[in-house]
Amino acid sequence: MTDTRIDVRSPADASIVGSVASLSATEVAAAVTGIRTEQPGWETLGIRGRREWLERYRDWLLDHDDEVTGLLQAETSKPLQEARLELAMSLDLINYYCKNAEAFLADEHPRGHSVITKSKRLTITRHPYPVVGVITPWNVPLLIALADSAPALLAGAAVVVKPSELTPLATQRVIDGWQEIGAPGVFVCTPGAGATGAAVVEEADFIQFTGSTRTGIRIGRRAAERLIPSSLELGGKDAMIVLADADLERASNAAVWGGMFNSGQACVSVERVYVEASVHDEFVRRVTQKAWTVRVGTNDGASKADIGPLISSTQLAIVTTQVQDAVSKGATVVTGGERAQPQGGAFFQPTVLTGVDHTMQVMQEETFGPTLPIMKVANATEAIRLANDSPYGLSASVWTRNTERGREVARRLEAGAVNVNDVLSNLFLFPAPHAGWKKSGTGERLGGAAGIRKYCREQAIIESRITPHDEPLWFPYTPGKHRLIWRLLRFMIARDANRKLRKFGR
Ligand code: ADP
């Protein structure tokens, strides 16, 4: 085995909270060979057999909830409430796919579309990609690892997970749990940094990636060269549009939670806000008041902090630079704006900015910090134009008491999911596709049947109900047979009597 290890540090105080091996490409290849060998047996178990294992696994996760969320907290310093929410959502998702996988993966028999094909019986069947590679980021590491792996396992694939080098502990522990329940050896963790992830891309048959657009492009390019599919969930710059008739109390509470949940380190967090002029000042007043009460620190359930630190000093530098860039171009810091003291870790103050515009990084680039830049707009049309003026298109929200208008605005937004009078709720709704537009990604996660079918190759099996010795389309091509077939086809395809019956020339 490798003698290279990665130390995992707490973002709250930089203390070492654990370490993992960093796997070489050769070790990744060996791990994948191992699960690839086991995969046919796993597939043969059938959906019911696999579901039983997933249900036992859910129970193991429930029985180890404190240990798992403890590790997750140690490596992310997120509040206990959010660590538990990650686990709860993962378990809910396992239940959802356990309940529905059989129906989602069942054979289908679409009918032939024309008289000519009526005599054929079609079966669409689904076979898993043998090995699915799941590469995860550091912001919600446990949820993403489990939410991407569970449907793949249920589909019959073997799964290799490469967790972020910043947050591998909880993921590695839960994959150990799969072994502890004695389940077939089709689920493995290969910790390491970018090079280990690249090795997974070389070995797997399907890549499910969540992370930066920059890395997603590299992975997508390599996957294309290998002719394997990839599903990429990348960055976001989610816009919130507050119309003049919105419930400002709910909208301002949502802006603060949606923008600062997980210290703003969520791909679907509120990253920028557009507010109609007549309610702008009142909205800013309420948001500021609420942001002021957001408590920064660590939270083990007993202490009372709402947001923890950013994941690393690199992330702290990005957020600081973006706020400074906005200020240098004329933005006003209404509250926050700086590193939070005295904790000493990568903490940043809850920050509200006004007077922002699209020349500023904070309105254009993903921030991933507890920041809410708020921009005054003349009307909904301007808000929509600005919301769409972004390379990203993950999700968005619209706020209005007129829900019909909310839906109309939603349809005009270039985003994979739009919440009306809500934030983040698309993530809790497993039948909803989570699919980024533009530079936010390709492919999707969740989305009901699509969320599990994507891990399968479709196969069409066509049977002839009638089997004469010869078929009209087969050799030999004689003029008489040709004329007859052409007449029949014309009759079938044309939609008016003249063309249906036009005299056949040659
Ligand atoms: P960030 O820069 O925010 O950490 P990344 O997109 O670089 O986000 O990382 C997301 C995941 O992708 C991590 O698990 C990381 O180790 C992995 N990764 C980074 N570079 C590569 C690569 N070239 N190929 C495969 N995985 C990679």
From TrEMBL:
Gene3D superfamilies: Aldehyde Dehydrogenase, Chain A, domain 1, Aldehyde Dehydrogenase, Chain A, domain 2. The active site is at residue 233. Coiled coil: none annotated. Transmembrane segments: none annotated. The keyword Oxidoreductase applies. It comes from the Bacteria. InterPro entries: Ald_DH/histidinol_DH, Ald_DH_C, Ald_DH_CS_GLU, Ald_DH_N, Aldehyde_DH_dom, Aldehyde_DH_NAD(P). Signal peptide: none annotated. The keyword Oxidoreductase applies. CDD domains: ALDH_DDALDH. Residues 4-460 form the Aldehyde dehydrogenase domain. Pfam families: Aldedh. Keywords: Oxidoreductase. Belongs to the aldehyde dehydrogenase family. PANTHER family: ALDEHYDE DEHYDROGENASE-RELATED (PTHR11699). This is Aldehyde dehydrogenase. It comes from [Mycobacterium] nativiensis.
